[in-house]
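From the pipeline queue, job 12 of 40. The input is one protein chain; the requested action is below.

Action: predict structure.
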Amino acid sequence: MTNVLAVDVGGTTIKAEIAGPAGAVLAAGSVPTPKGAAALDAVAELGARLIASTGPISAAGVILPGIVDRDRRIAVFSANVGWSDLPAGELLDQAWGVPVAIDHDV
């Protein structure tokens, strides 16, 4: 197993870390959560910054607030972040070049 990226998108802060094969945290970071679709851009940028510091990852998981369609990998609705119907999984796949699983934070 190679490095994996985990991201938690909160109403005020986006937190992310990359863990190595043994589970050790290799890199971590956080940024304020912007409102609307810009939040997904901030997720992509934070992940890319961490990947640049550690090297390639094999997969990523992103936890999103609100209603999430995990099968279609869509951020359906979040009142506190202010987005609706964002194809989060697809956009992050493209940003990081690996499969990205998404789910909700409840």
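Job complete. The chain has a mean pLDDT of 95.
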